[in-house]
Amino acid sequence: MCVQPHKVSGARSLQRLLRxxxxxxxxxxxxxxxxxxxxxxxxxxxxxxxxxxxxxGESLYSQKEVHxxxxxxxxxxxxxxxxxNIERVVQEALDRSGVTPAELCAVATTVKPGLALSLGVGxxxxxxxxxxxxxxxxxxxxxxxxxxxxxMLHPVTFPFLVLLxxxxxxxxxxxxxxxxxxxxxxxxxxxxxxxxxxxxxxxSLRKHPQCFTLSGGQAIELLAKxxxxxxxxxxxxxxxxxxxxxxxxxxGTQITMLIKKKxxxxxxxxxTLLSCVNDIAAATQHTVALHLAKRTHRAVLFCxxxxxxxxxxxxxxxxxxxxxxxxxxxALMIITEATGLRLLCPPxxxxxxNGVMIAWNGVERLREGNGILPPDVDVSYEPKxxxxxxxxxEVRAAAIRLPSIRLKIPN
Length: 411
Ligand code: KG4
Ligand code: ZN
Prior knowledge:
This protein has helices at 12-18, 64-70, 75-97, 116-133, 142-148, 150-153, 192-202, 216-224, 249-266, 277-305, 326-339, 348-351, 355-368, 392-398, and strands spanning 33-38, 43-50, 55-62, 106-112, 137-141, 160-165, 170-177, 180-186, 315-319, 342-344, 389-390. Strand 2 (43-50) and strand 3 (55-62) form a beta hairpin. With 411 residues, the chain is an alpha/beta fold. The strands form 2 sheets. Strands 10-9-6-7-8-11 form a 6-stranded mixed sheet, sandwiched between helices. The chain is built from 14 helices and 11 strands. The longest helix has 29 residues, at 277-305. The protein is globular and about 70 Å long. Mean pLDDT is 94; it is low at 1-10 and 23-28. The protein binds 5'-O-[(R)-(carboxyoxy)(hydroxy)phosphoryl]adenosine and zinc ion. 5'-O-[(R)-(carboxyoxy)(hydroxy)phosphoryl]adenosine binds at residues 41, 166-168, 193, 196-197, 215-218, 221, 320-322, 324-325, 352-353. Belongs to the KAE1 / TsaD family.
C-alpha cells in the first residue's frame, strides 16, 4: 500500500464525516455504522455492523465449489467470480440491515495480504463506493481481522497470544493493540490449510460421497474421525529447530510419498479412492495438530519468559479457517491447560473468511480513530504483508527447549 494510514489528525473534513451517529432506524439507534467488505481469497463477504459489534446484516458468497471442481483456486476465475458477485453481496448486506449507504459512517475493506486479483476487486469496488457516498475508508489487514474477531464475542483485553492458521497463513503473534502485533513465528513455506487442501486433492476426496462439497480441511477432519492416526507415522516438522516458525511442505511430501506407495500396493491409479483414506486423514490431521501445538507451547514459554502476557487471565486466541478444526482445538487445549492460559476460538463461521470480521476490524479502528482515510485517498492492495514487528529471530535465539507434555489428543 502506498499510503501509511496512520491517525489523520488535522483532517477536519474527515472528522466531520466520522461524526455520523444515526438515530433514524430502530436497529441502528445512535451508533456509528460500518460496512465491511472481504475479497482477499475465494469468499466475497460483506456485513453491516454497529459500533457495539452487533451484526445488522451480512452476506457471503463462497467460491469453494467452483474451485473444488477445478482442483484449486485459479486467480483469474476467483477475480471473475468476485466481480460477478460483489455488488449483489454488498447490496444484500445493506438490505438485510435496513441501512442505506448514506447512514454508514465508514467502509472497511481487506487490502492485504491475499490474492492480487481478488484484493483488487474489493478495493476497486470500495473506493468507488466511498467516493460516490463520501464516506471514510478503512483499509484492513486480513490477518489483523482474523486476530481481532474474538473481541467481537468476548471481552478479551490486550495483550494476548494469537495463533492464526488458514489457507494462506500460519503465524504466532502477541496482539498488543488493534494495530500493534509482535510476530513470534510464521510459516517458512506453505500454510496448513493449503497443505490440507493439497492432500485432500491428491486423495481425490471430491469423489468421496461424504466429502464432495467440503473444503480440503473439512474433508480431512471428517474422515479422520473414523481413522487410525497411529497406522502411519509422519515426522512432525522442525523437531530440531527451537523457534516458533512453521513448515508444512515437507509433511506434504511425506504424505504424497505414502499415497503413491499405497496406490502401488493396492494396484490402483492416481485418482482412485484408497481403502486406507481415513487412516491417512487421521495421521495427517494429527501431525498438523502436533506441529501447531509444539510451536505454540514454545511461544507461550517465550511470552512468559519475556513478560509479554498479563499474569491475570493470560489468553491464547486460535483463529483462521483451520481453527474450525475440533481436533486441532483439542491439541491446543492441552497446551493451554498445561501452561495456565485460557483458550478462546471464535465459532467456525467466524474463523473462515467473512465480511463480519472486516466490519468488526473497522469498528475497532473507528473506536480508536486509527487508520481511517478520507474517501479520495488512493490506496493500493498488497498481496504480501507481514503482520506487525517480526521478532522471530529473537525467539530463535532464545532457543527454548520444550518440556515434554503428553499430547494425548482425544478423538
Ligand atoms: O481463513 P480461511 O477461510 O481463508 C484464508 O484466509 O485462507 O481458511 C481457509 C482454509 C482452507 O485451506 C480450508 O481447507 C481450511 O481453512 N479449513 C479447515 C477446516 N475448515 C476450513 N482446515 C481444517 N479443518 C477444518 N474444519
Ligand atoms: Zn482468512
